[in-house]
């Protein structure tokens, strides 16, 4: 949001980007996987025609295939656990913003002569800054500056309350929880699953695909078919793991599975409505 002539100038919320992942991204993802499978299938057919498929379909190779699938599923389960936690964060941020909005309105209700419009405007700017930060439009430093400004405004508004005031304590507590959620998102964005496990998963997948290319199968059609099916599953799992490991990758055009920001954006709309209605909320 921008402030001009004392008025809060709202910026449009881009629902299509922040809340709904376009289906074209998923189609592009499937196209990339299909292209990789086609290359591997062509290599398999070429090796078969040249008679270079000298490996037999031994129990050891089947064990390698099963261990690779098990490893990928193990990594996927770990990444999904973190993803489920990330799904809750936008809603928790929205709850903090809504609680701050409602309790600022209580100050005006208890003391009608006191205006909290500046605090409401700062809170609306903070909500928009959180959204912009998640969409990679502003830096973390800019977000923290908005947070500090909002904290100062909210604290100033709470000083008019008679001491001791539980309401003042709740306002500061909501701000503290909000900051902890911002820090948690920052940790998730900057942390990947165990790197060594990723390397093992990529290496195992590469070995399985290479083994499938050189594995001898009587029928050329069967060899290409099984090559395509198995490689598609493995490549799909690898991409899905990498995508779910970054649940806030809204600015990444290759990201197809990000958490929903619906609750946060609805909260921002309510904040804008409160600010435009004046100090009374």
Descriptive account of the structure:
With 281 residues, the protein is mostly helical. A two-stranded antiparallel ribbon has the order 1-2. A hairpin with a 2-residue loop joins β1 and β2.
Tell me how many strands there are: 2
Which strand-content bin applies to the residues? Answer: under 5%
Major sheet description? 2 strands, antiparallel
Whole-number radius of gyration? 26 Å
Shape: elongated
Could you say which structural class the secondary elements and strand pairing correspond to?
mainly alpha
Can you give the mean pLDDT? 83
Count of discrete alpha- or pi-helical segments spanning 4 or more residues: 9
Percent helix range: over 70%
By oligomeric state, this entry counts as single chain
Spatial separation of the terminal alpha carbons: 19 Å
Spans of at least 5 consecutive residues whose pLDDT stays below 50 are: 1-10, 13-18
For the largest beta sheet, what order do the strands appear in spatially? 1-2
The succession of helices and strands, N to C, reads: EEHHHHHHHHH
